[in-house]
Every structure is written in structure tokens, then in C-alpha cells.
Write a structure and sequence with these properties.
Number of strands: 0
CATH topology of the largest domain: Tetracycline Repressor, domain 2
Helix content: 55-70%
Largest sheet: none
Distance between the termini: 59 Å
Order of helices and strands: HHHHHHHHH
Mean pLDDT: 89
CATH class of the largest domain: Mainly Alpha
Radius of gyration: 21 Å
Structural class: mainly alpha
Low-confidence stretches: 1-10, 202-213
CATH superfamily of the largest domain: Tetracycline Repressor, domain 2
Shape: elongated
């Protein structure tokens, strides 16, 4: 399938056709894999014209990204257990289950990551449609924790989000350790149980011998 981006014509997209295409994309990805996916196969399974797909999705990566981002948002909802640790644990457990359980998304995500490395314009799409949506879901969790008084104002929430997803992506891409319930609970406990007051900044050290300035 040609991965060259194509502009769409501006015609309003049918919601029924969009859902049919997304369903077909995900079914084909899980049965045949990313490399074997073509617009022809998607059109045949979705029972839509191939030009409909070309009109609304600029490339194979964009087509897959749209389907995966929507499905992920539906399957990983924002938890509200009443505690930060409970919310983080639930969020991570759900994320790991979606990656590895029924209808796994891990192979699809890895294929899209490869696309981001060879197509800079797709990297921006991936950040906007997938990464930012997942970060926003976690921001909502942290905002509720702040409202409950669990998360002090001085805590850098964006850094906390980086820690959550940094750990997830590191294990996902390199596979040195599992993404399982034990890890979800341990990471949630670690991140939720920080000091009640901001720590003192670490002293800067000289390059020559590690002495304090």
C-alpha cells in the first residue's frame, strides 16, 4: 500500500462508513498484520468504495492510527476509584490488558512506532491523535487527585505523566520486563506515595571530582 499522504476532498464523511472502515482495519490487522494491510482489503471488508478511504485517510499509517486511537480511548476509560493510587493502578492495568489481552494492540502500536521513525509528518500525527489523547486521560485522573487534596500544587503533573508512560513504553518496546498487574500496582504505589513537601534541590556537583559547589 502506498504510504504517500493524500489530501482529502473536504466532502463530509459518513459516520456509518467511518465505523465500518475502522472495524475492518482492526479486524485485518489482528488477522493478517500491519504489513499485509491494504486499502483494497479494507474497502472489501468494510463494503465501501476504495475512493472513500483514499478521500478521508491520507496514508496507511493515518488509517490505522485513526482506528487504533478511537478504540483505545473507548477501551481505556478514565478511572475514578477515589484515590490516586487506585486510579493509577486501574489506569495502568487497563492499559496493559488492552496491549496484551483479547484484541491486543501491542503489534499495531509497534508498527506505528516504526512509521513515526521513517515519516516525520506521521510522527506529528501520532503525537496529536494518540499520545496526547492518552496523556489527556491521565491528566484528568491527576486533576481529580489534586481536587481531593492528594496531589499538592507543587507536583509537576506533566513529569508524573512522563513517568507513567515512560515506564510503559520502555517495557513495551524493549521487553526486558513484563507489563502486568504486579508492575501496574507497584508503579502506582511508587508514584502515589511521594513526600508531602517538595524536596530540596540536589546540590550541583563539579565535573572534576564530584565536590559540592
Amino acid at each position: 500500500m502506498d504510504s504517500t499522504p493524500r489530501p482529502h476532498t473536504g466532502r463530509k464523511r459518513s459516520e456509518a462508513s467511518r465505523l465500518a472502515v475502522q472495524h475492518a482495519v482492526l479486524e485485518l490487522l489482528r488477522s493478517e498484520g500491519y504489513a499485509a494491510l491494504t486499502f483494497d482489503k479494507v474497502a472489501a471488508l468494510a463494503k465501501v468504495g476504495k475512493q472513500t478511504i483514499y478521500r478521508w485517510w491520507s496514508s496507511k499509517g493515518a488509517l490505522v492510527l485513526d482506528a487504533l486511537a478511537d478504540e483505545t480511548s473507548e477501551r481505556i476509560t478514565e478511572p475514578d476509584t477515589g484515590t490516586l493510587e487506585g486510579d493509577l493502578s486501574t489506569f495502568l492495568r487497563r492499559s496493559f490488558e488492552v496491549l496484551h489481552g483479547d484484541r491486543p494492540t501491542e503489534p499495531i502500536l509497534k508498527a506505528l512506532v516504526v512509521e513515526t521513525q521513517v515519516r516525520p509528518e506521521f510522527l506529528e500525527q501520532f503525537r496529536h491523535q494518540f499520545i496526547e489523547r492518552r496523556r489527556q486521560a491521565l491528566r484528568a485522573v491527576l486533576e481529580r487527585a489534586h481536587s481531593r487534596g492528594e496531589l499538592p500544587a507543587w507536583v509537576d503533573r506533566e513529569l508524573l505523566i512522563d513517568q507513567v508512560f515512560g515506564a510503559l513504553w520502555y517495557r513495551l518496546l524493549f521487553g526486558h520486563a513484563p507489563l502486568d498487574r504486579h508492575f501496574a500496582d507497584a508503579l502506582a504505589h511508587h508514584l502515589a506515595n511521594f513526600k508531602a513537601t517538595p524536596s530540596e534541590p540536589s546540590p550541583r556537583r563539579k565535573k572534576d571530582g564530584g565536590r559540592k559547589d
